[in-house]
Amino acid sequence: MEGSKKGEAVFDSMNLNPQLFLNETLNTVEDIVGEAFDFYTLEASNLLKIDGRADNNRSRELAKGIDRVRGMIQSVLEDRLRMWEAYCLRYTFAVPEDFVLPESDAQNIQPLPNDQDLDAELDSLSRKLHLERNRSVELNSELQALERRSVSNELSARLVNEVSKLYDESSVNDMSKEMTKVASELRAAINRLKTRRTNAAERATGERLKNNGIDFPATALGGKIEELDKFLAELRKM
């Protein structure tokens, strides 16, 4: 039982006092009932338009009626609270006879942290939670920005592909014509280059013949057959 020395030792080891808890609870109930009837008196005075500060018959009758109602309620409430207190002491805070508190537990039980420690821990947890929420908001913003950027990139890629496709389809004929023109110009340039090389070779041959004492102009290479025969005869004599 709670009044036994064993029960007191168990509760003392855990820094608990059942009777103190019950007394505080009963006092709290009494305070609540008092505040409730004070409010009831004020509201009744306002509804009946009675000045509670005035000493008249109506004010006294109202106070007497409220006291009677309060007495009836408190009488029933006190009986219930006494039964509740007895039940708590007999059953809720009863320590079984065979209960044994281990010595190690009794020695290692630490007192509960005070309110300041709890407040500091709660403040720390609150700050961490606030930081995590801010971080979550930032991550969500970054994720939305990446999603918008991805959508924009995909749209740009589709537009580029469509424009490129349209350009390819519309410029096939133009490109074919341009390539034909470039090929013609290239063939003409090659022919001109061949002509210049042939003329240069003929001039070089004429110069070599002059250097060997043969008066044979370079233009003779394009002359008549008789002139060519004469040229060959001169070469055999050399």
TrEMBL record:
One of its GO terms (cellular component) is MIS12/MIND type complex. One of its GO terms (biological process) is mitotic sister chromatid segregation. Keywords: Cell cycle, Cell division, Centromere, Chromosome, Coiled coil, Kinetochore, Mitosis. InterPro entries: Centromere_Mis12 (IPR008685). Its main location: nucleus. It comes from the Eukaryota. It is found in: Chromosome, Centromere, Kinetochore. Pfam families: Mis12 (PF05859). Belongs to the mis12 family. PANTHER family: PROTEIN MIS12 HOMOLOG. This is Protein MIS12 homolog. It comes from Brassica cretica (Mustard). The lineage of its organism: Eukaryota, Viridiplantae, Streptophyta, Embryophyta, Tracheophyta.
